[in-house]
Amino acid sequence: MIKELFPESQPISELRKLIETELPKENLNEGNTLWATSVCSDEVNQSLNQLNDYFKAFGPFIMGGISGIPFAGKTGFKAFASHIPDNGGAVIIYGPHIGITKDGKVGMINRDGQGESSSCCGSLVAGLNSVKTGNVLNISHDDYQQGQVNKILIERYDEIKKADRDIVMATEVAYDQIKRELTDIVAGSLDSLGEKPLLLIGGIIINRDWDQDDLFEVRDVAWYNN
Hints:
The chain has helices spanning about 1-5, 10-20, 75-80, 120-135, 145-155, 155-160, 165-185; strands at about 10, 35-40, 60, 90-95, 95-100, 110, 120, 200-205, 215-225. It is of the alpha/beta class. The chain has one domain (about 1-225): Beta-carbonic Anhydrase, Chain A, CATH 3.40.1050.
């Protein structure tokens, strides 16, 4: 099922190898590079934190909120940029996530300690359910992020409802939005980097049941200030 839907997905250890290959191109290494993420707040995405075994600087800086949208915005990015080591650079890993259980349920995983599977990404599943029923959250102070997620799904719901698997298409829509917002933030804040190079790696996290390792499908690799 995973290879059918995400044929280029690989273990997160392969993401580390990609980073190790890319950084020397700009004279960067594990000691002078700060890393950040713009991924969903869901605790299952802490599987990316195995990259801390590589980076010497404590991380990651958190850019993303629910669904992975970079809600930290320009202010958050500028703060992140100000933390980059002298004569160093940075990496941001971004994208949405989707669960796939051992028995092929898409948009769900079995979490440690739970007898039943639960939704993943919960924010995207909730947003889809809201859009389908017409019970869409307004953008309010007490659920601001989910209101924004719903808005994104509404804007492209014609595409989503035509898909064979609506949660897979919603994940693709989320990827497009995260990439667009993050690249806009970076492009509008390049002065905060000075001459320090920044690597953006975009992709989709594929979460699996609690006793299986997660995967990552790389979609985009881009350098700024190189």
